[in-house]
Amino acid sequence: MTGLVDVANAMEKGEVGRTEEEPGTPPSPPNAPSASATSSTLWSTQSSRAPPKSSILPLASRWYTSQSAKGTGNTRQRKKYHVPVKTRRINDHPKGYPNLAAFLDSDDGFAVYRRFGYLQARILLQKQAELTALEEALQATELEILNDDDNALCNRKVFGPHAAKQRKLLKDIESTYCSYAQILTAAQQMMSFKKPSNSEYQSVGRYLNNRQALVEKEATWIQHKEDIITLRTGRDHAWLDDIIEGLLRLCHCRLIDLLFRSKETRKKAEIDEPNMPARPPKDEDKYELYYTPSRINKLANSILPVLVLTLLVLPIYLLYHMVHDIRNDRAYSMCIGTLLVFTLAFSAILSLFTKAKRHEIFAAAAAYCAVLVVFLGNVAPPDASLSRVHDVGTPGRI
Length: 398
Fold this sequence. Notes:
InterPro entries: DUF6594 (IPR046529). It holds the Pfam family DUF6594. It contains 14 helices and two strands. Strands 1-2 form a two-stranded antiparallel sheet. The termini are far apart.
């Protein structure tokens, strides 16, 4: 307590923060503020607000150096991780149904199976006949109930000698109808599946024939072509993919193998051991070529802009050439024929490459033809342009 009183008295006298005076320095008056106290007070105030720049720079440089060293170390230690890819090889599975299942799973286009449309119709007809018989039996039973009591069917629960029979009929109708509706819905879903393309169908049939994966009797399921469906969804230009893949197989070389077959795709039909569980016959492995679908799709998509530019530039060039260079009466007839041919080509490309509806194709073809007609109308033969210039430049006669 006495210490606090002394400090308060010293503050009143201005002695707080006073340092020892150097010899030779005149003593300051008691009421005069001390220079050392003032400087120390100012220094303490400035230090509380912000440290001097001389102390900030070394700290900042040391912090930046440490952080950069940490970042460099993390960058050097961290490596890009690639997930290892496992590819199911067809020849690793034994001959028979395991090998056939691996083949059907190797490509989306090979997922073809029978729809069993005849069995669907047969089961539905049977269920339909059962429901018809139950319907007639229920009507007859309810007529018998009404003969006993006119108001018997006005209640949810029916009483009387025929009540148990009616309840049993309703339960049978419910179970039969639920089964019928389930089969009917499944049949509708089966009808919505697409048919495989001819190339996909032939590929599966050729594999069954070359590999002899199944016995002859059990391999005949592929021969029911009208009953075969594919699990693959429809594509915009599947026919173009088939054409490209056929050309690649026909002209297969090392360059095509590098461009259109990934490392994982090559492994599907890889043969690296002489005693594999299912090895293809001699000279038959050359037909088992897999191409990466994404790369074929990119090539097909790159063909579309080329076709669009061709349909826009080529007819304009031909029409201009016919009007300016062919100076006879057949020029305009040839122009009309050119318009007709390119408009038909434009409509065919729309229908093949896109999912446009009929009225959309008609509207697009009409707009395309209108553009060509407007261009043809604005292009005048050179003789006509010269005659116009001559008529404008020659003064009129009075």
